[in-house]
């Protein structure tokens, strides 16, 4: 009939749908009103499809680069532990002889005792540091196991272990000159009190003493008798290590 409207063509229908979708795409919603403003999508003159919108973040402030390479003096002093420093057990550490540059680091540990195995007189500046920080010094000077004459006396090691086995003396640092052989012997004997196997004890000893591990040190550790130490330990002040408690129970039974 002449009065009937002409039905829309297929292309008109597609155009109307695109226009409606475009309005929905560009019209902000309620949730959009609270969001940070972003770049609106744009259309390419040669294309009818909307492009993807990308939010641009504010760039960080520029970083000022050093004009020279970093060296050790650029780092805080308290970042320097002594040579061969390591944790032995809770509140017990080991190392080589601490130097002045190590004092701030040691102060952070809150030490109550230092157990040193050096024969020489303790350095004056180190003594002053200990006095200023109320750290007790226990010096058990031994010469070390060097063939064919010198050897470490067991009674001295027993006395050093009794200090380490008293929680009133902890935290404590064990050291000799380099933190390798004499310190390794004392730590090895402590491991026997902690029920470590010889294989594990020797492996730890060699890791710290390499490349100059001493067979006499390992023999000393293997033959060391822990019973005199267990007989003198104060059960009321023994560190809270389960293996030590087990050893003490066996000793007193």
Molecular structure report:
By secondary structure, the chain is of the alpha/beta class. 38% of the residues lie in helices and 8% in strands. The protein is built from 9 helices and 5 strands. Strands 1-2-5-3-4 form a 5-stranded mixed sheet, sandwiched between helices. The longest helix has 17 residues, at 10-26. The N and C termini lie far apart (118 Å).
Strand elements, count: 5
The helix/strand series, from N terminus to C terminus, equals: HEEHEHEHEHHHHH
Number of separate helices: 9
Largest sheet: 5 strands, mixed
Shape: globular
Stretches where pLDDT is under 50 for at least 5 consecutive residues are 24-72
| SS-derived structural category | alpha/beta
Strand order in the sheet with the most strands = 1-2-5-3-4
- Whole-angstrom Rg: 37 Å
End-to-end distance, in Å?
Answer: 118 Å
| Helix coverage percent | 25-40%
Beta-strand portion reads: 5-15%
* Arithmetic mean pLDDT: 76
């Amino acid at each position: 009939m002449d009065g009937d409207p002409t039905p829309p063509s297929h292309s008109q229908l597609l155009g109307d749908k695109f226009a409606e979708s475009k309005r929905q795409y560009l019209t902000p919603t309620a949730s959009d009103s609270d969001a940070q403003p972003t770049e609106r999508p744009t259309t390419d003159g040669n294309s009818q499809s909307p492009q993807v919108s990308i939010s641009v973040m504010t760039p960080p402030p520029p970083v000022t680069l050093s004009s020279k390479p970093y060296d050790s003096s650029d780092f805080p002093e308290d970042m320097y532990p002594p040579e061969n420093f390591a944790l032995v057990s809770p509140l017990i550490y080991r190392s080589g002889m601490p130097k002045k540059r190590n004092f701030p680091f040691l102060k952070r540990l809150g030490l109550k005792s230092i157990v040193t195995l050096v024969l020489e007189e303790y350095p004056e500046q180190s003594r002053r540091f200990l006095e200023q920080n109320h750290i007790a010094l226990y010096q058990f000077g031994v010469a070390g196991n060097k063939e064919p004459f010198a050897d470490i006396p067991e009674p001295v090691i027993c006395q050093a272990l009794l200090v380490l086995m008293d929680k009133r003396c902890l935290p404590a640092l064990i050291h000799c000159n380099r933190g390798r052989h004499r310190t390794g012997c004392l730590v090895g004997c402590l491991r026997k009190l902690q029920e470590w196997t010889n294989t594990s004890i020797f492996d730890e000893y060699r890791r710290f003493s390499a490349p100059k591990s001493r067979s006499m040190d390992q023999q000393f550790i293997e033959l060391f008798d822990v019973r005199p130490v267990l007989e003198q330990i104060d059960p009321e002040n023994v560190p809270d290590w389960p293996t030590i408690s087990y050893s003490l129970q066996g000793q007193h039974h």
